[in-house]
Amino acid sequence: MSKVEEFEELRPLLFSIAYRILSSVSEAEDAVQETWLRFDGSATRPTSTKAFLSATVTRISIDVLRSARVRREEYMGPWFPEPLLRDPYQDPARAVELADSVSMAALLLLERLSPLERAVFVLREVFAFGFDEIATAVGRSEAACRQLLVRARRHMEAGRPRFEADRRERQELATRFFDALTDGDVGGLRNLLAADVRLVGDGGGKTPQLAKAVVGAEKVARLLGTAFPWLFRVDVSFEPHEVNGQPGAIFHDRDGKVLHTLALDVLDGRIQTVRTVSNPDKLGHLGPVGDVWAVDREIRQARRRPN
């Protein structure tokens, strides 16, 4: 097998490792590309290509994350990961761990960890790497990696997200949610939301996004039920789609350009969190990005028109 073939076979795994460490599609893709350049430029073939490439992409991702931390601390408003529509790495034996670990809730919990803790946690808990492989990847002893994992687990356990296991039930709830959203059915929305539901958005200061989270079933239902019908009146449409392994949708303007994503956290038959990402810098990998400000202006004009 040629170098190119070996690398392409492992690319889905490499991207999935990098994305979970970085929470960024674009940065993960760059890390994978840099991994290829190092592999291609190596004069010798490693004993285990998988181990070599996994270690390389992990080290690159750790370095990128360290510099990204500064930018995230200065970020305007809530910060969410770049939306991921499909995890390219598939492993039926670890399907549940893979799906849960890529959710926005889980990735936000990972932000609490140091870069080394995060890398160790991802490699061990998500991808079941051996401690010898992890030690090589992060440049620490096996004993040190075990300690890093203990600390990471301690940080993660308190807020670990637990979603509905039945995918069909989640999707049915999401279908009812989007039907009620389309109809502007405030009561219908209220019945689907947890009492302490949170609506929060990441606009990065670049879109007319909510300044802070809206909390409570009544407030969230009323805001969604009154705001979204106006979007549909100016020809905004949505495509139901899993976002980071959770039920969600992608919203487009009349020209088919991406405006934002919406993802739902579901637990105990109710929607716990509604997360939107409208920062255009985080949507480019989904397709051409629309002008949210133009849509907002059009809605304001429509509201001023007499019925």
UniProtKB/TrEMBL annotation:
Superkingdom of the source? Answer: Bacteria
GO annotation, biological process: DNA-templated transcription initiation
Task: Provide the alphabetized UniProt keywords.
Answer: Sigma factor, Transcription, Transcription regulation
Domain RNA polymerase sigma factor 70 region 4 type, residue spans: 105-156
* Xref: InterPro entries: ECF_Sigma-70_Domain (IPR052704), NTF2-like_dom_sf (IPR032710), RNA_pol_sigma-70_dom (IPR014284), RNA_pol_sigma-70_ECF (IPR014303), RNA_pol_sigma70_r2 (IPR007627), RNA_pol_sigma70_r4_t2 (IPR013249), RNA_pol_sigma_r2 (IPR013325), RNA_pol_sigma_r3/r4-like (IPR013324)
Is Transcription regulation there in the keyword field? Answer: yes
Q: Name one Pfam family in it.
A: Sigma70_r2
Q: Does the keyword Transcription apply?
A: yes
RNA polymerase sigma-70 region domain spans which residues? 7-69
User: Entry's SUPFAM superfamilies?
Assistant: NTF2-like, Sigma2 domain of RNA polymerase sigma factors, Sigma3 and sigma4 domains of RNA polymerase sigma factors
GO MF assignments: DNA binding; sigma factor activity
**Assembly and binders:** Interacts transiently with the RNA polymerase catalytic core formed by RpoA, RpoB, RpoC and RpoZ (2 alpha, 1 beta, 1 beta' and 1 omega subunit) to form the RNA polymerase holoenzyme that can initiate transcription.
**Family per UniProt?**
Belongs to the sigma-70 factor family. ECF subfamily.
PANTHER family for this protein? ECF RNA POLYMERASE SIGMA FACTOR SIGJ, SIGMA 19 FACTOR
Q: What is this protein called?
A: RNA polymerase sigma-70 factor
